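WARN no homologs supplied; continuing
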Amino acid sequence: MQFERDHSCQSWHSLLKRAVTTKRKQRPSLYQLPPNAIGNVPPAIERCISHITQYGLKVDGLYRRCGLATKVSSLVEALSRSPKTAPLEKDEQGLLDAAGALKQYVRQHVVLIPQTQRELWVKAAAHTEETLRLATYRRLLKKMPPDNRITLNALCGHFYIVQLYSVENRMTAQNLALVFVPTLFQELAMNTNMVRLTMELIIHHTLIFLGKEQESDMESEELITKL
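OK structure emitted
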């Protein structure tokens, strides 16, 4: 699964919403695959995001409520072996299990923010000006390996869509950030700045991940150095 950086939020949301409301025997990918896109999302993550987007956006407490521990572990094993055939179910409990499996899979198999770059994110999150924080997040993303960047893009974009349905699922961006920050920053999860950072990656997904670049690489380096 790959993301085209210049997709508008509206067109991307339209694709996802169509996937939720359309039933087909063979459904096209939720995400278009431009020939010049860089990086790959693990198939297991793609499968979970697609399944939850199609069937689970209105499930109360999605990602906050726990799935059945044994079922979640079984799903993680199945997703690791064969993502396409892992038995994801469509009822409420099955969707909670799928959400739990996604969280567990990311924790166990994916390092989203490389350890060597984590301190830069901590410094960016501590800045008092929101505009500068968001601009710095964008620049730090450019430093990440392509697979890490596009996977973080996929997850935050998915959570952005989930919080659009917060009236039904009661999962606001802040609630999702509280759930997701331990996966993203592990030992820094209790740092309130990191919770805010995670929430901003969700709320401002379009600007941070899909916005057009306005500064040069040199300017990016200068701002990161100042922080």
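Residues 9-226 form a domain with the Phosphatidylinositol 3-kinase; Chain A fold (CATH 1.10.555.10).
OK
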